[in-house]
Batch of 2 targets.
Target 1
Amino acid sequence: MFRRLILIFSLCFGAPIWSQFSNAPGTPIIINFTEEAVNNDLTTYDISQNQNGIMYFATPSGLLEFDGVRWKNYVHELESDLRAVLYKDAQHIYTAGHGGFGYWGVNSVGVLEYTSLFLKLPKKKAPLLPMFSRIIEINGKIIFQSFQQIFIYNPMTDELNTIHAKKGFNFIFYSQGRVFIQETGIGLFELKGNELLLVKGTEDTALHILNVFVKKKNELLVVTKNNGFWSLKDAVFKKKKWKINTVIEKHLVNDIKVFQKDKFVIGTLRKGVYVVSSQGKVLIHQEKSNGLLENTIRKIFIDQNENIWLGMDNGLSYLQISSNTSYLLDYEGAFGTVYTSHLEGTSLYLGTNQGLFVKKTGVPNARIDLIDNSIGQIWEIEKIDDQILVGSHQGVSILENKKLKLLYKEGGAWVFKKHPKLKDVLYVGFYSGIAVFKRINGNWVFEKKWNNYGESSRFIAFDKYGDLWVTHPAKGYYRLSLSEDGLNLENYEFYGISNKQVATYAYICKIDEDLVFYNPKGYFSYDPIDNSFVPQKYSAQLFKNINGINSIVQNGNVFWYSTPKEIGYILRARNRFNNVRNPFYSIRNKHLNDFNKFEKINDSVVGLGINNGIVFHNINTSDIELEKEVPIIRSIQFISKTDTLTSRLSGRELKNIPNDNNFLKIAIALPKTPLANSYKIQYKLNGLNTSWSDWQFVSELSFPGLTPGDYTLELRSGGEGEATSDTIRKEFHINSPWYLTKRVFAFYAILLLGGHGLYRLYFKNKNLKQIRTLKQIELDKRKSQEEKFKLDKLESERELLLLREENLGLEIKKKDAALASATLNNIKKNELLTGLVIDINKIDNELLNSSLHLPVKKVIKKIKSNLLNKEDWLTFQLHFNNLHAQFFDKLREKHPDLSSNEIKLSAYLKLNLSSKEIAALMHVAITSVEQGRYRLRKKINLNKDVNLVNYIQDIS
């Protein structure tokens, strides 16, 4: 199907790239690489490329590798200052430089390792080292050249032959199977076998030969550093009469390469790079002022896609010259962001945010000139009939003879739209409303502006019923009904976001002359009978899987579109659609969204304004490729918390990945794809997910936390609605944790069998034990009965003891009560007697009869003797001993030197009596009791922090 699609495409647009490219006004895109961005020395002396598209650069810091995404530098301790590189195969990447040469080979994990073939180390007598600056291959042999020697290496035999210079070599050149080298002051030589043969006619030439190209058997094209192109035919030098020679003589040449068989790429010392035809005509000239990183070009390399790499002193520039897309970019802020364009003859007009500009096409690096400095923002340039109208922030102007003439001044003219039937009526959408112009005597003249409609009218179109539609992206759609003469607005109807088929980001376009309404809710047509929007299936299928479209323009079978994230076009072949996005990868985030205008420059070239420039695309068969590049896996890493395993890229070691290294990270590249293009990647990891992922631009995949098992990673490139590449597959196995491995499971089986045997033995013993237990139970029953009798007996005895204990407690309480009662009675008796003594003494003192004194004294004495009655103490002591039997013995044991009064005081303190109560019992003053307590503390040597009463009560 896609072959048929390309055949149809070729019939429409099928010229080769370069003839089409010349029709586009722009120049190739330039991508610059600086040392800061790459984080490596980018002084580039030589460049090579492998069959997968991976680039290799010889720099003073080592061999630099680039896969289109990642840069990696390889250094060997004996050879790091490199001047030349030649990729032969994965195991032989030859490099040469300061002091020696050798080759690099890819090891099992994709890392380059160096093998030296020749190395000269500095010595006192010979401190200078050879500088090998060129490597070429011829007839299976590798030639390394320094300024004094040529080494010829045979990889099959490891034989190394040497040719020495008589004075000094210049550079070695290869062309059509022949090798040439100039020896300074002697002439140009051809290398045949291991010999140098002088080319006739070059003896003692003063030309500084930079390269030699074989044209015919007897003719060489000789390029010099500062004296142009020369022809050497039949031993006669003749200078070419080419204009490029003037450039070479003025700016000097550092390198030159054949390009597309019949062109040359010339890198100069002072003026950047030139692409010239086989007759010396300048086709392209690029320098620093229009995008190159530097003007001094050290090295030129033509890659597999026939794009150009330029090595410089401090970086690299890449020119994607073999592309259908060309660019006119504003590197210096000279013309700004382009909103519209128009090609009239050889004059390209650009409407930008800075004004209206013109550039002459077909002339490399032609100036871009401002036409009118009084006009600012330009929104539209369109040729209507034979007049070029310009819509700007100031209004509507006519462009004549590269000059602007103001036709109508009104703030902001967005767009022009002719009436589909009335050829002399033109509508102009403004910032607010729509104006009507009429063609009178061959000129467009302002007629009127409708007062009854004032919405911004950036998008306007007629439907097949004669109504004029206006869309406001943030609001919805307006249907305007016009008068028969088209001059008046009769009425209009608004369809806003309250309508179930309308949403913000509402747009309109024409598809096959039908007006299509599209927004995030879908694609619709207008039904005038029901006054409603109905789904439009064809458009939905045409733009299937493309979300967020904000601009659609049809050119025949090509449908241009843009979304906030990409630009592309749909190619229609009958009812099959192919989505082309790859050429526009570099501008996917630089376009103007719904301000985009896909404007037809000529039959095959479309122009699109972008930020700070404009892009031209030449629709060509190369846009549709039968095969997409298969993604390559650059590295496979299995990461754990403690280490990272970089696995072999071959399948062998992907079968034993430790369980802990279950975080998979895979680096992907598409190195064959030109840098300004790219494809999306789709993947699935069988074992984790059986469905394909969404298409996305991605260069690294991560799968954390993979469980044990077998996995197959599948990768392919392409995109929604595009052909896909072949699928690459990589299988791997994540091991189970050690406790779930086969050996451990065998151990588990043995353990289970052993456990089963032990289980059976256990139950056998258990049964025997149960029988013994039953017998024992019978015996135990008998013993139990006996023990029950004993227990009953013990229970009776226990209850008896409890009764005794209860009686004892009651007795103790009784004794305690008796002691308390006796003590209380003694206290009251003593208080009473003491009171009597006091009262009798008062009476005695008041008696007048002295004869009564003596009898009173006897009464007082008798009362005092009762106060000091020893029987009271003995009674107290008896009751006290019943309650505290061991107190006096333990007190005397701890303090044997206590007096009887101190023992009495201690006993009273044991009962927690107050000083007043103790004074009454001992028939002394309260102060005497306090002094007694003090002497007691001192005698028993009691610490100040210890309470005396607590101490006495603790003695039991």
Target 2
Amino acid sequence: MKLIKTVLLLLSVICLSNCKKSSSETSVSQEIKVEQHTDTAGFNYETVTNDPTGLRLYTLENGLKVYLAKNEEEPKIQTFIAVRAGSNYDPKEATGLAHYLEHMVFKGTDEIGTQDFEKEKVLLQQISDLYEQHKAETDADKKKEIYKKIDEVSFEASKISISNEYDKMISSLGAEGTNAHTWFEETVYKNKIPANELDKWLNVESERFSQLVLRLFHTELEAVYEEFNRGQDSDGWKSYAAMLEGLFPNHPYGQQKTIGTSEHLKNPSMVAIHNYFDKYYVPNNMAMVLVGDIDFDQTIQKVNKAFGSFEKKEVVHPVLPKEDPITSPVIKEVFGPTAESVSVAFRSGAIGTKEEKLLTLADMLLANGNAGLIDLNLNQKQVVQNAGCSPTFLNDYGYHQFYGSPKADQTLDEVKDLLLSQIDKLKKGEFDEWMISAVVNDLKLSQTREYENNTALASAYYNAFIHREDWKDKVEFLNELKKVSKQELVDFANSFYKDNYVVIYKRKGEDKNITKVENPGITPVELNRDKQSEFIKAFAQQETPALTPKYIDYKSAIKETKTTSELKVSYIDNPNNDLFSLSIIFDMGRDNDRKVSLATGYLDYLGTDKYSPEELKKEFYKLGIDYFVNAGSDKTYVGISGLKENLDAGLALLEHLWTNAVPNQETYAKYVDQIAKGRQDSKTQKGNILWNGLMSYGMYGDNSPLRNIYTIGELQAVNPQELVDKIKELRNFKQRIFYYGKDVDAAIASINKNHKVQGELLDYPEEVKYVQKETGGNVYFVDYDMVQSEMIFLAKGSEFDSGKMAASRLFNTYFGSGLSSIVFQEIRESKSLAYSAFSAYSTASEKGDSNYVYAYIGTQANKMPQAVDAMMDLMTNMPEAEEQFNAAKEATLKKIAAQRITKSKIFWTYEGLKKRGIDNDNREEMYNTIKDMTLEDLKSFFNENIKGETYNVLVVGNKKDVNMDALSKLGVVKEMDVDYLFNYEKKNEDIKL
């Protein structure tokens, strides 16, 4: 879930990027302290000196925390509304409550989502009373009768409600990323809005959080249960849950899953949910985070006007159980269809403890993706299939998780022992002392990149609130890490890592603990999409300042020069910091030469005549330089990125590798073994089977880019010297360069010195072309051990035409994507047939290729026939709703108006446009086209491009549960062999999914 390395270092590590002053100056200028201020309107706030994020932290009179930071790069604001309440505080007899409440906060209030609340609330009270009866009843047949009554009253209530009004209003603002999440200690509500829509957003959110109305309750409950089913189908989720259960045998971290238990989900209490909302959703237990194009003084006044009247209440969080020390290994096993793996986890102290700092450093010394002990000794040497580690820190405890996947000839215990052996090396101090400062620099680099992004910075703020962290402590965090000595870290490792761990063996096999339930037979509720509440009518009349789109003149924004070797260099200045990226681009890839892709992967495991592979990784890490050599289908990239001051040394090191790489037969044999095991592992992943295997077969049939691979026998026959030669010869082909950073003259000088090409450059080998097949009349099915079934309807459309991009974008907003789309409303909101359902008209990424129409459903197997009928009806007869169309149109225009293509994205966006045969910023044409479109125009687009299409149907599910007769009505059913889909060779033993 949140196992992102260094996630809790937050922005403090950016401090180094501003530390350019002499030591005599820094003692004063680098002082970190909290300062109190009062703005012109009398609002008090605090800042932290030398905080590169520029945070202003306000506390309103009612206790609401408001985190504000300014970034004018784009006219958008990342918003979070965070509540210090999560699954830890669920009643033991009602687990999953906090998460289900999160879903219900989207359903409206007495003003949003209703035609007549006085009439509706009578029915809602009846439903609540019936749920209390249902919860108390123990007789199964009587429970069913009560549920039927709930269904009947819910249908009557739905005639008064209006579905998705919140989503419609937020979408009409041009909002992106509308969502929410619940975890142990938090529930967080998310939107990214155009900056000019702040007033309207605050208007909606202040009403939304003013009260809770549990309308459309039983249909949303089914959606949550489908989410529960998705968890049952995720071996990763089950392994994670088993790890927590072992680490925390008493604490809710391990004893209360956020999603809840099946029994509790099927027996909810609306009374308990209201009580939870009333207790925790109060201003002094909440925070608002706004990061982006804001005016500080005006924004806090607006927030206070919207939320300042919320009533403060005393909040007492329950005292949670303490854990006894783990004194011997705790063993857990998880079974499922995916590849085997092992995890080892150690319980740690909480956020804000000394242990957090020491464990952060220990983790990075063990695995940083480049030069950690696990990176070098296990991954680089290909001793295991893959391995790594990651820490997580929470309010009461934390944990350090290690994970590994076995090679074909390894047991899980062997992988576990190898992971523990790297911990032993840390305990013995078997790492270079310079690694501590290199790790700190690495953190500086990664966080500087990450927090250029408003969403990442805003996430750091809400995390600080949830975990009760002073921002000053986060700004100081890096300085604290720098004070840790090698001996202190070694001493910590010896005291922390003992036989006090939990080991989770993820084994292949049947999960005996799966819960399956019958289809409850819900009556589809009324959506009333043609109705509007008085609130939404007033909302529509609320005026906002206009936001003017800004388009890119790519030819002037991307500068060009040449090297002394006459290589074209495109470049863009980095206005923000001293980071750079340098890419040497070859317009050829595996479609031109399959061995290029093979060779670039092999190079990562090689050393040179001067450095061993491990030494080379260390040299790059010392410099804080990342290098990359990779090949896609039609492009190959060689390059580096990092701090500008080390560009020349980094490029010299890359060129040294490129020129002097030394092949190694043993390394190559392990590389082939790794590819073989990777193929075996990947075909056990249902997502890979559906979205890669079946999708590719549905598009291309037998002759697909996915199936055009070397056999393992062919790979074993390759001479590794040939692959090294292939890499070295790459520089003889035509190439161009893109540089993003400061001081282009210095970059060009380094290229001239280090990257030398000789003579006339070669043309690329001819590209293999793959024919996209016509679709229709086929059902491709893969049998897989799972609770849900997932399916894609896929239809080949017309050849790419840039003239359709405007209509397709508007169609996707209105019809198929987002919480307020037609598909989401009909499949999930009205009929409760799926947790996830969407559809899109997908335009090709390359001129000459075909567009595609597709639709996806993930649902309980016994709901599939109904879900299929509902989706196919929508794909044949598009519902027409004028108000919803206008909202979708407004949303699409506002998203274009608020979009800013900046920095290196200018170059890479233009690269994508040129592949489509477009040489200008076509957003201007799209904006003007959409502005003049009517619902009748969209209907014409639907009739010409979607209605009547014939589909290949791609299905992955459990054959024992799927209604194969229903599938046969969609076309000729062909049960696909997974090895054939990917063109893999079968092993001697059958692999039962």
